[in-house]
Amino acid sequence: MKTLILLFMISSLSVFAQDPDSSTALFSVAEAERNFSRASVAIGRVNAFKENLADESVVFQPDPIDGQKFYSQRKPSPLLLTWEPEYVDVAASEDFGISHGPWEMKDYGPKKIPPFWGYYVSVWKKQADGKWKVVVDMGNGVETKPAYEVKLSYPKGSDKKREFKAVDAKTVESSLMKWEDEFAKLSKNNVEMYMKHLTADARIIRMGHFPATSTDSIKALLGKQTDLTWKPIDGDVATSGDLGYSYGSYESKSEKGHYLHIWKKQADQSWKMVIDVQLPKE
User: Fold this and answer.
1) Could you tell me which of 3, 38, 140, 214 has the fewest CB atoms within 10 Å of its CB?
2) Domain 2-155 has CATH 3.40.630.10
């Protein structure tokens, strides 16, 4: 565990580990995530999700399904879910953001199920009324509670106003989907190729493991998935075209499931992956 914390600290040199100014879009994404978690405590997990998911949203159970429909059919339960953002980013257009961090589930019912933990990744989009809503949410579990203090971090410069030229989001989304297909073929059994297309602060999240953030820990996780390939189903990008996501199905020699990839456009206009999270089927 001490080694994990040290690796996390080293990998964070490319990010700021502090709250951004409260006037920034970056702060508003982080605060929307925190308010979401607070609502989970105040009004229950099911109602909190119904309030914070966009009308068109996707959650994974473990297959991708309509988020609002899923939670509208759920009944309240004594399971208390809380979480905290530890990494956020926002597009230059300030209408599209991502959040990632640890979650904890506790049972306050008569069965007293032991607590369990994991990590989530959420994609947020600003709605017509100016409110942030979650459009995609995926998470998976770890065996022990994270032992480090959660502190918010974000890429350098993402808390500043940035100039951008609006793009045709559908066109850029289409190009991202094509890149996903190509990237899957290039990276099959080729860890070095995969590594070349990660940002410096990339996070790889796998079931049963804490997020891998260093070169060695990422390679170790990827090395466990022989013949890994994936197929995109859908995705979206910001109106500034610099931040986007795709989700789809994946399969390796040992398992299959669904993934969520967060992508960021680089200065040379190439896409690099910020977050790769997988949720295997049981």
Assistant:
1) 3
2) no
